[in-house]
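Subject: Sanity check before I submit

Could someone independently write out the structure tokens for this chain? I want to compare against mine line by line before I put it in a report. The sequence has 389 residues.
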Amino acid sequence: MRLLDRTILKEMAAAFALGLMVFTFVLLTNRILRLVELIVNKGVGVLTVLQLFLYVLPFSLVVTIPMSVLLATLATFTRLNTDGELLAMRGTGFSLIRLTRPALFFGLGATVLTLIVSVWILPVSTQAFKNLVFEMTRRQVAVGLQEGVFNTAFEGLTLYVEHLNPKTSEMEGVFLVDTRNPAERRVIVAQGGQFTSDPKQLRIGLGLRDGSIQLSGTELSGRYRLLTFQNYALTLDGGRSLSSDPAQRPLGEQELPLTELRKRAEELRAQGNNYHPLLVEFHKKLAIPFSCVLFAVAGVPLASRIKRGGRGLSLAISVGFALGYYILIVAGEGLGARGVVPEVLAMWLPNFLTAVGGCLLLLRGDLFPATLFQARRVARASHLGEPGD
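---
Independent answer below. Compare away.
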């Protein structure tokens, strides 16, 4: 690799690192504030919050890495252009296509990195995030209860426990008032019970034994029914205070690897159900990473047209360009999920438009002067020679 390529790559790497930090911080600002709120208001440990942040980070990197590649390309080549170095290199025989080579290599490296994050790391981190939130909820339920006190940590439930073992979650002397259903109020008395958990469904339950249930409602006109039981299972909502926190994000197809997405899509198709969202997610995991190399190719001719403005203008252009790209992605995702357009077209159309636009800009910038018509005339003249030679 030439010294020129290494120099451009070093400058692009510095701008990329700065842009990645800025874009990621801006995108995660709301999440960071919510995580800080977990420490201050909910007593969650700092290490646990750091784990949550690391698990959320890959979701943001899938978006911010392509944006940072575009910013790095624009900032580097804008600086070369405004300082006259780009003109000097072209004057010594370097074409704009040749000068695009280090940016192309950088974009390919970023594409591989984003593919790794999108295809392998993101599903694992999403699942780990869900499990950690569930563990936080489960610990809060067991530790938050107090013996001999009416506990209202569960929405619509009032729980009184005579004796509680926080390690095993076993209880003795349970008194529970359930008002979650306004039409039917339940008063439950049991000799003992224990908290149960379902990590897959993120549900916490309460298993009671040897007790009775008093049911009263408007239709009973002041009377009540009495039921006795040996074992009774109750689903709780103790994690609402955490699960409703905006630091969490919806979990769905992002947890699935590519092979599982394909498999479930085929199963839903065979059952006659809507399989389009799974295929949209499949193609999105692949399409967005490849935008890195396309942004790098399109960024070089864009930067060669910037005469002044520096990195501030480069930042504005990169944000606007990336915003337009992700608007197309979101629109295509909605259309593809409803089956209005094919999933492949919905997710890969923004890449196709970026590739075509980037190639046209690169051709226009390489075959100077500015218009394609004049560029073809110059190219034809250089091959055929001037008339009369």
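---
OP: Matches mine. For the report I'm noting this point. Residues 238-251 have pLDDT under 50 and may be disordered.
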